[in-house]
């Protein structure tokens, strides 16, 4: 039975941060010259404007194509018989190892992050670059990429996602205080769109890693008590709380 090949458009549509790609590059508006200019000069200006807008339009198209390629790499497949060409086995990029996959994706994201300043596209590229670095076992690089995204206000959704990933990286480096501050801040932030239960669970595990089991259980109890509806997220919190209570009566 053959496998269904996703198009680049379909891959981007399924990506959790696809909406962050909208309005990635803002074009500079060029106003007309004063009517006192001679016709010849006006024509020169008009041609310059047209050429400039064409350049920006082409640059935006190229950037979006590169971003699509980078995200394809990030979600690519791994196979022992993969070729040097990621598309050597078909429309879905395939690599010999997870390391090779994330290295290839990281190169594309790094190029976009450095080439587009502080645009939304660059912010998104830095977020993904941080994910790649995390997967490659480079916490220092991941922190360097994710911290600017976490504090960037151009796209709140990507910023919150970066904070969540960053908190996890902080835990792996032993910086529990920074991880706890990020997670507590998002839990209290009414504008944070990420599931509070997920962040409470992540916070409790960070606290356990610090040796603060009592505080971790308190976080879990408070999270379970929030609201009236017992969701699957709260069920997971209850299970984690039960597990900790059995370990620490």
N-C termini distance: 53 Å
- Helix percent reads 55-70%
Spatial sequence of strands, sheet with the most strands: 1-2
Rg over CA atoms = 23 Å
Low-confidence stretches: 1-47, 49-56
* Sheet/helix structural class: mainly alpha
Query: Could you give the count of β-strands?
Result: 2
Query: How would you describe the shape?
Result: globular
Number of helices: 10
What composes the largest sheet? Answer: 2 strands, parallel
User: What is the string of helix and strand elements?
Assistant: HHEEHHHHHHHH
Bin the strand percentage: under 5%
Global mean pLDDT: 78
Question: If you had to describe this structure to a student in words, what would you say it looks like?
Answer:
Strands 1-2 form a two-stranded parallel sheet. The protein has ten helices and two strands; from the N terminus they run H-H-E-E-H-H-H-H-H-H-H-H. The protein has helices spanning 8-14, 39-74, 98-115, 120-135, 139-150, 156-172, 176-188, 196-209, 213-225, 232-247; strands at residues 77-78, 94-95. The longest helix is centred in the first third of the chain and has 36 residues, at 39-74. The model is unreliable at 1-47 and 49-56 (pLDDT under 50). Helix 2 (39-74) packs parallel to helix 4 (120-135). The protein has a domain at 8-160. It is mainly α and 249 residues long. Helices cover 65% and strands 2% of the residues.
């Amino acid at each position: 039975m053959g496998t269904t090949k996703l198009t680049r458009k379909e891959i981007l549509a399924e990506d959790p941060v696809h909406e962050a790609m909208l309005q990635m590059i803002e074009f500079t508006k060029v106003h007309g010259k004063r009517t006192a200019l001679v016709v010849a000069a006006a024509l020169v200006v008009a041609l310059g404007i047209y050429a400039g807008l064409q350049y920006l339009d082409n640059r935006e198209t190229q950037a979006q194509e590169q971003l699509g390629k980078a995200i394809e790499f990030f979600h690519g497949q791994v196979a022992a018989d993969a070729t040097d060409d990621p598309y050597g086995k078909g429309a879905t990029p395939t690599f010999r190892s997870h390391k090779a996959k994330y290295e290839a994706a990281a190169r594309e994201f790094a190029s976009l992050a450095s080439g587009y300043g502080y645009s939304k596209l660059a912010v998104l590229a830095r977020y993904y670059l941080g994910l790649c670095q995390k997967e490659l076992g480079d916490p220092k690089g991941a922190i360097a990429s994710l911290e600017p995204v976490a504090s960037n206000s151009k796209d709140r959704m990507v910023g919150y996602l970066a904070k969540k990933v960053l908190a996890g990286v902080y835990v792996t480096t032993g910086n529990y205080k920074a991880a706890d501050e990020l997670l507590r801040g998002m839990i209290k932030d009414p504008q944070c769109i990420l599931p509070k239960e997920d962040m409470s669970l992540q916070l409790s595990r960070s606290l356990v890693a610090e040796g603060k089991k009592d505080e971790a259980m308190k976080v879990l109890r408070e999270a379970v008590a929030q609201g009236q509806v017992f969701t699957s997220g709260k069920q997971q919190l209850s299970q984690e709380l039960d597990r900790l209570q059995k370990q620490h009566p």
